[in-house]
Amino acid sequence: MKVTATSNVQTKKSGYAGVQPHVERKLPDDRNENIYFNKSYLNIYGKSADYTKAIYKDINPWVKEHDSKPSNKYYKYGSVEGYLKKQNRVRQDRNMVSTFGDTETKRKIMDLVRSEYGLGHEEKVLKAFSTGLKRYADGFNKRNKHITLCDWGTNCDELGAPHIHMSILARTKTKRGKPSFNLNSALKKQFGNSKNQDNLRAFRQQEDSKLVELVGKSLHQSFPKVEAFKSMSLTRTGKQQSISMDEYKRAKKDNERLLTSNFRLSSENRFLRDEQKDLSKDLDSLRDDYSKQLDKNIKLESKNKRLESSNDTLTNRIADGYKVFVPSGYHNRAGKDVTTDVASHDSTPEHKSAGGYTVGGYSGLPLLLYMIKRTAKKDYKKLKELYSTMTDKKRDKKTSNTTKNKTKNTEDDLEL
Fold first, then answer.
1. Which regions in the chain score pLDDT beneath 70?
2. Per-state percent for the chain, helix, strand, coil, to nearest 5
3. Which of 7, 135, 222, 383 sees the fewest Cβ atoms within 10 Å?
């Protein structure tokens, strides 16, 4: 099976430390949509050499020798840290990224595994990728005498092809014996070509071939039934062409502009996502409030119906009481309305409004109460007059009886 591979050495002054939090998935708010964080446990991290110790091993002896010379008494470094502060780079190492195949290669390998083993082996494939990349890192320092691999980490949890990030430290010396961390010098010393481009090409060919070989062996050990995994070799998709320095600078500027634009768009996208989440929360809150208010309205409507029923019952009771206590001549005479009948026996003016007859400005339940009050007053007056009349008649009758008795007694006396 033919597979592509690429090895790129980045020139950022921050070195491997600049990407290490991303490689080890330690960024607090990493929202890279191409990372499946539930698969990050399959990544492997390691240290083939200690960066600080390697730096001290190369620089410390030279700094001591330099500072001990009388000619350098006014120009001393004092320590390894003092020497590094006067260099152009903060870190002397570089971040190297080696990638196995591409997205299409990854898909093809997944299909081959499914055809022989069925579904459900995705994590096992990713683990085989990670194991093969680890074996590649373990042998790096044996293959390269003038380039030291320090920290490294595999990334097989991304949407794209599996790859490994490596902190590499080029280690050579100048003609005067001064430590040098120049990659081109280290590659020239290792491969011996006069052109830096030829040395870099030889280095990439060596590393890419070994990467494909070791990842292929790891896949074959995990899935021995797949015939294509028994023999994997490197292939190149096309020839690399050199470009002029002006073209390189223009391409670099365009790339930086695109990176800036991409970062701005990513920030805006994160902002919009957060805003969308806030709006969703507000919408859910409004829905809850609406539901609660709807329940309250239903309860109020039910309560209003009960009150209306109670009001009707009370009105009927008052009406029944009115019929009992009001004289018969005041209601239901000749089938007339009670309001009209009361109006005919009362000096209070009556008139018809939009809701029916009113008496004295009253209508409905207040009208009934008003009628009871008026009727009670009239009955009281009649009873008072009747009592007065009865009292007068009784008194007159008593007076008449007394007079008759006196007359009778006089007559009896005369007869005697």
1. 30-31, 89-90, 238-249, 252, 317-380, 383, 404-416
2. 65, 10, 25
3. 383
Mark 323-341 as b/e (b = at least 16 C-beta within 10 Å): eeebeeebbeeeeeebbeb
Round to whole Å and give the CA distance between 211 and 203: 12
**Structure tokens given for 229:** 């995994």
pTM for this model (two decimals): 0.57
pLDDT of residue 135: 97
pLDDT given for residue 203 in this prediction: 96
Q: Per the structure block, which two tokens stand in for 326?
A: 């009001």
What is 22-33 written as a DSSP string? HHTT--TT---T
The per-residue pLDDT for 304 is 86
**Amino acid letter for position 273:** R
Tokens of 351: 């008139």
Give me the phi and psi of 84, to 5 degrees please. Answer: -65, -30
pLDDT of residue 358: 47
Residue 179: what are its φ and ψ, rounded to 5°?
Answer: -60, 135
Q: What is the DSSP string of 203-253?
A: HHHHHHHHHHHHHHHHHHHH-TT-GGGG--EE--SS------HHHHHHHHH
Residue by residue, what is the 3-state secondary structure of 150-214?
A: EEEEEECCECCCCEEEEEEEECEECCCCCEECCHHHHHHHHHCCCCHHHHHHHHHHHHHHHHHHH
Q: Where do we find the tokens 């010379």? A: 69
Rounded distance between C-alpha atoms, residue 166 and residue 134, angstroms: 11
